[in-house]
Amino acid sequence: MPPTPDTPNVLLIHGHDMGRWLSCYGLPNVPTPNLNAFGDTAIVFEQAFSAAPLCTPSRGAMLTGMLPHANGLNGLSHDSWLYFDDVRTLPEYLSDEGYLTTLIGLQHENPDPLVLGYEQVRGLGFLPRSEPVVDAMLEWLAEQDGQRPWFCNVGCWEAHRPWPETDYVPADPATVHVPAYLPDNEHTRADIAAMYGALAQFDENFGRLLAEVDDETLIIVTTDHGVPFPAPRARCSTRGSASP
């Protein structure tokens, strides 16, 4: 069963701790030109919020359509929170419809990605940066023969801490946006500049991926929750749960 307009290929790519810190959400100095261009032709949600300001509960809700208390993931998976036994996931439902389901890169729903209902898993460790993740996605994409519609869940580390200069090139601290809930000083600006470097790398690799995916593929870009700063982090507020 090849993909059709009713059963398109589906690409879900998600960052980590990104919030809405993208130029298409009114932060023009955030270096995300590929995501900005994508947003020009996509549906951009301005009132989208994650189910929780914490990684595992948010991701579990995204992939089950159930709130954390209903699916079992009320806390972090590495703290022993797991799906209830009767919970089914999005890849399982799509498999029932003939989809090839694949996980590439980061997930945060279970320490063992093999139990999450995917037909294929190409994990790259717990902290996969976007460059090797997209490399793996493009390699996988080249193997597809068009005989089945596919769902590919692509998870990237950015923009979760840390942001070492060995991995990311920081932005100019003078150009960054300092939100009102943080002190505007050299330490804050250096910290945000480092995060901009992580966002830039995610954007660059998203652009590589976008160039190879055909126009008939349904592409969803999102994140788990807000940015990793003191006020948004793990807080039940707009800052903690606003998502693209």
Q: Mind explaining what this structure looks like?
A:
The chain has 244 residues and is an alpha/beta fold. The chain has one domain (10-241): Alkaline Phosphatase, subunit A (3-Layer(aba) Sandwich). Helices cover 31% and strands 10% of the residues. The chain is built from 7 helices and 5 strands; from the N terminus they run βααααββαβαβα. Strands 3-2-4-1-5 form a 5-stranded parallel sheet, with helices on both faces. The longest helix is centred in the last third of the chain and has 27 residues, at 186-212. The two termini are 32 Å apart. The relative contact order is 0.24. The model has no long low-confidence stretch (mean pLDDT 92).
Low-confidence stretches: none
Taking strands numbered 1, 2, ... along the chain, how are they ordered across the largest sheet? 3-2-4-1-5
The general outline is globular
- How far apart are the first and last residues' alpha carbons, in Å? 32 Å
| Number of DSSP helical runs | 7
The H-and-E topology, N to C, reads as EHHHHEEHEHEH
CATH fold name, please? Alkaline Phosphatase, subunit A
Domain Sulfatase N-terminal: 8-227
GO cellular component, one term: cytoplasm
Keywords: Hydrolase, Metal-binding
InterPro entries: Alkaline_phosphatase_core_sf (IPR017850), Sulfatase_CS (IPR024607), Sulfatase_N (IPR000917)
What is the structure about, briefly put?
The protein has one domain: Alkaline Phosphatase, subunit A, CATH 3.40.720.10. It has seven helices and five strands, in the order βααααββαβαβα.
Strands, helices and their partners?
Elements: E1 10-14, H1 33-41, H2 55-64, H3 68-71, H4 90-96, E2 100-105, E3 120-122, H5 130-143, E4 150-155, H6 186-212, E5 218-222, H7 238-241
Parallel strand pairs: 1-4, 1-5, 2-3, 2-4
Helix pairs in contact: 5-6
